[in-house]
Amino acid sequence: MSAAELSLHAVLGAGPAGTTLAGELVRRGHAVRLVSRSVPDGAAEGIERFAADVSTPEGALAAVQGAAVVYHCVNVDYHRQVEVMPRVQEAVLAAVETTGARLVVLDTLYPYGPTHGEVMTEETPWRATSRKGRMRAQLDERYLAAHRAGRARVVLGRSADFVGPGVLNSSLGGAVFPGALTGGEVLGMGDIDLPHSYTDIRDVATGLATLGAHPEGDGRVWHLPTAPAVTTREIYSMIEERVGQPVRSVTLAEPRPFGPFDATFMDEYAEMFYQHTEPQIVDSTAFARTFGIRPTPLDATLDATVDWYRTLLAGARS
User: Fold this and answer.
1) Which domain of life is it from (predicted)?
2) Cα–Cα distance between 55 and 158 in angstroms, integer?
3) What is the pLDDT of residues 15-42, one digit of tens each?
């Protein structure tokens, strides 16, 4: 590796994506700084823990100082996203413009809006109709405009719903695996017989780290490695095989509080519920073709996720 490749990489956001990414970057031999509003807990050995509010210009600049590559994995409470995420973008963009660092942004499928089952590729039009979808599309336009104008070097990596070790607040997370392992109720949203893409959190990390290592990919959107879509009901059957008992699914035809998703979250999520009433199919073959990185097979993802939740539940019991 060159000296540039081994220089500091700053990861903004210490949720499942940021924490998993920081570990992946350390494995690749980088010096890594993991940033959150308070000093992050549980980061892997060799990671610099750093506290900063990156929604402020001074906080963002302090967070990225000295970094060659910055990864924006920041998220906020769902009901505050429309208010806060534009401020984070403004501060982070200004910081990388000042320092000259490359910016890798973890992105969502929200800008596409309802697709009526169309397979999503990087060429799919952006037709968001929700507040959060339009907000995300506006942010992405600004990122790409900053790159085109030469103000910053930016690349976006889009992910489907997260799944995997460490993932709790996802439609395939804390409302599914604990119930499956203990015989409790498991959440299903909308029509669980429709194909729905899920992205392994470790593939999110691998994909973002790969974009960080390949500046020739800058200036565009990439779909991070995502396994071929199957129905959520099929996933429940695969989980049943691993836990050795039936999955007792409770399917919500419309948003309402369930498990880790309280009324505040579900009220705000209502405008995005179309994601569970039409097929959500992500195609990531462009990433595989360009970078040679293919997604983790769904079998392996579920093996690792069930094992992680088993350990989590055992720790809670003890």
Assistant:
1) Bacteria
2) 21
3) 999 999 999 999 999 999 999 998 766 5
222 and 158 Cβ atoms separated by less than 8 Å:
yes
- Predicted TM-score of the model (pTM): 0.95
How far from chain centre, in Å, is Cα 258? 22
Task: Identify the residue whose tokens are 């990489």.
Answer: 9
Question: Is the domain of 157 the same as that of 169?
Answer: no
| Contact criterion met (CB below 8 Å) for 314 and 253 | no
Residues 6+ apart with CB under 8 A from 131: 82, 271
The neighbouring-strand residues paired with 142 are: none
Whichever domain contains 240, its CATH number is 3.90.25.10
For residue 155, the SS3 value is: strand
Domain extent at residue 144: 9-161+199-223
- Beta bridge pairs of residue 102: 69, 153
Structural domain total, the chain:
2
